[in-house]
């Protein structure tokens, strides 16, 4: 089978499409014939070894996960003898994450996934590309929105609102009745309005930290700001949360300092995703209250181009790797 591998850290060109042996599922695994996957921030950061400290996890001398990609959509071809949730022929989607740990391996024609991974059956009404794009950013956004305990009428600002986390958080905030101000660049203004943003700030024309407005919750989905820069924008009981690496230690410090505060504070997000969370999003989609956002699709053979584009940080929603025709 074909798979995209990398043996050393570096630019997108370190990725190579090679032929390797098709995996065989263990007793507790399902073998998925892949249709679609995604390229997201964990993928390009693992390939690049950025930040440097991440190499302790991804491997110093050899790659712990030579095949990247952790979001998946495809068809079950075979199951291990102890598998009970799935059967051959089932269309499935989700994330190759087990007990909160990334397993990756989805940038390939086949992948073995533990039955306990974050996967579930794909409804016929949802395409494979949309299904592959749904889990990652949506889960992160969901934990952020839950941490903020949004209520109807809350005012929310989302920096980086056009990415996979941002587009999901915007739609979830709308679902919970909040009013969203989205921060993006010029060419995404109308797109974010179409997703339900009440106000859009074009960061190429205005620094959102200089606004006179006040917000109950600020989500930095790209990590370019900090609590210190945004504190004056919060209401007296407002909360700030960043999902990125920018000002990481500063935000950790204030997160600890304000942990028990009833005033302005820094939130943290966490919690292990579950297959039931996938069902929650499927219900929202069926109700017309949420839609996965797909920016563009690349073939598996174009994996380096996909990494290069995602690393720029200007995508709308998610970038798909098309492995097989639907």
Main sheet characteristics = 7 strands, mixed
CATH class type of the largest domain:
Alpha Beta
Q: pLDDT under 50 segments (min length 5)?
A: none
The whole-angstrom Rg is 20 Å
CATH architecture call of the largest domain: Alpha-Beta Complex
Report the CATH topology name of the largest domain.
Quinone Oxidoreductase, Chain A, domain 1
Structural class label: alpha/beta
Order of helices and strands: EEEHHEEEEEEHHEHEHEEHEHEHEHE
For the record, what is the CATH homologous superfamily label of the largest domain? Answer: Medium-chain alcohol dehydrogenases, catalytic domain
The figure for the number of domains is 2
State the helical fraction: 25-40%
| First-residue to last-residue Cα separation | 18 Å
Mean pLDDT over all positions: 94
Shape: globular
Total of DSSP H or I helical runs spanning 4+ residues: 10
User: How large a portion of the residues is in β-strands, by DSSP E?
Assistant: 25-35%
Notable characteristics:
Quinone Oxidoreductase, Chain A, domain 1, 2 domains, single chain, seven-stranded mixed beta sheet, Rossmann fold, 326 residues, 26% helix, globular, alpha/beta, six-stranded parallel beta sheet
């Amino acid at each position: 089978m074909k798979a995209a591998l990398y043996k050393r850290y570096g630019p997108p060109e370190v990725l190579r499409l090679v032929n390797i042996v098709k995996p065989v599922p263990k007793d507790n695994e399902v073998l998925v014939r892949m249709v679609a996957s995604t390229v997201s921030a964990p993928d390009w950061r693992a390939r690049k070894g950025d930040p440097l400290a991440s190499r302790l996890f991804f491997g110093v001398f050899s790659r712990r996960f030579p095949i990247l990609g952790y979001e998946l959509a495809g068809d079950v071809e075979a199951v291990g003898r102890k598998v009970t949730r799935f059967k051959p022929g089932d269309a499935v989607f989700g994330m190759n994450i087990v007990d909160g740990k990334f397993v990756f391996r989805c940038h390939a024609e086949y992948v073995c996934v533990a039955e306990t991974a974050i996967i579930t059956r794909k409804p016929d009404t949802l395409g494979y590309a949309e299904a592959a794009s749904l889990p990652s950013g949506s889960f992160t956004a969901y934990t952020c929105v839950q941490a903020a305990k949004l209520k109807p009428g809350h005012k929310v600002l989302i920096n980086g609102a056009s990415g996979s986390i941002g587009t999901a958080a915007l739609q979830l905030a709308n679902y919970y009745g909040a009013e969203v101000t989205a921060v993006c660049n010029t060419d995404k203004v109308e797109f974010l309005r179409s997703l339900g943003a009440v106000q859009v700030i074009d960061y190429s024309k205005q620094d959102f930290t200089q606004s006179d407005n006040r917000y109950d919750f600020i989500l930095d989905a790209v990590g370019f700001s900090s609590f210190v820069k945004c504190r004056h924008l919060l209401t007296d009981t407002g909360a700030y949360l960043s999902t990125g690496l920018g000002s990481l230690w500063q935000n950790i410090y204030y997160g600890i300092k304000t942990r028990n505060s009833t005033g302005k504070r820094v939130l943290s997000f966490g919690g292990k995703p579950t297959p039931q969370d996938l069902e929650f999003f499927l219900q929202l989609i069926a109700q017309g209250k949420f839609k996965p956002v797909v920016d563009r699709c690349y073939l598996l053979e174009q994996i380096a181009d996909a990494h290069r584009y995602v690393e720029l940080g200007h995508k709308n929603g998610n970038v798909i790797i098309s492995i097989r025709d639907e």
